[in-house]
Amino acid sequence: MEAKVKWVEGLKFVAESASGHQIVMDGNRGESGPSPMEMVLMSAGTCSAIDVVSILEKGRHEVKGCEVILTSTRREEAPRLFTHINLHFVVTGTTLTDKAVERAVSLSAEKYCSVALMLGKVVEITHSHEIHTA
């Protein structure tokens, strides 16, 4: 996997993936795009959500929606590393059970989500979920 990051101006950069997708990131408190740390947080949520939806669908559960609400704590001093991240899954569907969603979240957390597994080496990561009926 490869990517490149190009400085635009100030603390604004454009990152481009090997597949040609671009995103603006801003080190100036997210003035014109997400900050790099916001991208890390969003990447953990997206990676985990992909797993959860995929696992539930493979289990023949009808998933109508999946949202991950991420909350985090960071160190006050530099480097401002994450110390805790919670991923709260709000899964909507018609055939969902608590057991199935809990299993999907656990499999993502313990086996499949590369981003969260990598971060989990240095950050305390917790998970919670709720189910909404569609």
TrEMBL record:
Protein name (record): OsmC family protein
PANTHER family linked to this entry: PROTEIN YHFA
Gene3D superfamilies hit by this protein: 2.20.25.10, 3.30.300.20
Biological source species: Rosenbergiella australiborealis
Classification via InterPro entries: KH_dom-like_a/b, OsmC/Ohr_fam, OsmC/Ohrsf
Lineage summary: Bacteria, Pseudomonadati, Pseudomonadota, Gammaproteobacteria, Enterobacterales
Annotated Pfam families: OsmC
